[in-house]
Amino acid sequence: MVQINPSILSADFARLAEEARRVGGPEGADWLHVDVMDNHFVPNLTLGVPVVESLRRATDTPLDCHLMIEDPDRWAPQYVEAGAGSVTFHAEAAAAPVRLAREIRAKGARASMALKPATPIEPYEDLLPELDMLLVMTVEPGFGGQAFLDVMLPKIRRTRQLIDKHGLELWLQVDGGVSASTIERCAEAGADVFVAGSAVYGADDPAAAVQALRAQAEEAANGAAGTCAH
């Protein structure tokens, strides 16, 4: 199942509640991607727990919180309590990723782990059963609007192969530079959850942009599946 998660990093921060609703609805966003940055793990500062709490009250779309922060072992559970339905921590920042993933799940959210572009997937193969989603960053985390890194496509493929090898129901998310010109390559490589920022919020009709991206990804994924079947 293809899922589209618009990133509010590209939305108008002065009107977040309205921006969240613009991508909602029956055919709209599957999740709302919330980028949390602390100006330590990444060189940018965005928002925190109070804003997530407010967003949870403002939209029916579930929140997918991506924590680009130091010490996620301490902070991630608070985002579940704030209303996040999925919480992503970075492998490079977590001291005890298995324990953290289990704590996130125990509190009732989906547990996800993110990898920066230079971080390989292979050392984390044994951790995959502890996760509900794996995020492969397709830009360096920290800022929206960056160009997609094509060199990440083989890593997406290797990650999909590991997921399939273990027979896991694990979502594979990509984040960074996802747009109409890149989403098909990501879907063909095996990604099924797509974070799109400016490609959605930079459009005249963000909800229509979500639908168009989903259709592109579904067609590419179906094409790739058909090729594999032969």
Structure, described:
With 230 residues, the chain is an alpha/beta fold. The protein has eight helices and eight strands, in the order βαβαβαβαββαβαβαα. It has helices at 16-22, 49-58, 72-81, 97-106, 153-165, 183-189, 198-201, 206-229, and strands at residues 3-6, 32-37, 63-68, 86-90, 110-115, 133-137, 171-175, 193-196. Strands 1-8-7-6-5-4-3-2 form an eight-stranded parallel beta sheet. Helix 3 (72-81) packs parallel to helix 4 (97-106). The radius of gyration is 16 Å and the shape is globular. The two termini are 21 Å apart.
Please give a handful of descriptors for the protein shown:
230 residues; alpha/beta; 8 helices; 8 strands; Ribul_P_3_epim
Helix and strand content put the structural class at alpha/beta
Computed Rg: 16 Å
Strand order of the largest sheet: 1-8-7-6-5-4-3-2
Task: Give the number of helices.
Answer: 8
Kindly, what is the distance between the CA atoms of the first and last residues, rounded to a whole number of angstroms? 21 Å
Please report which band the strand proportion falls in: under 5%, 5-15%, 15-25%, 25-35%, 35-45% or over 45%.
15-25%
Instruction: Report the biggest beta sheet as strand number plus sense, adding barrel if it closes.
Output: 8 strands, parallel
- Helical proportion, percent range: 25-40%
Shape: globular
EC number: 5.1.3.1
Binding site for a divalent metal cation: 33, 35, 66, 175
Keywords: Carbohydrate metabolism, Isomerase, Metal-binding
Protein name: Ribulose-phosphate 3-epimerase
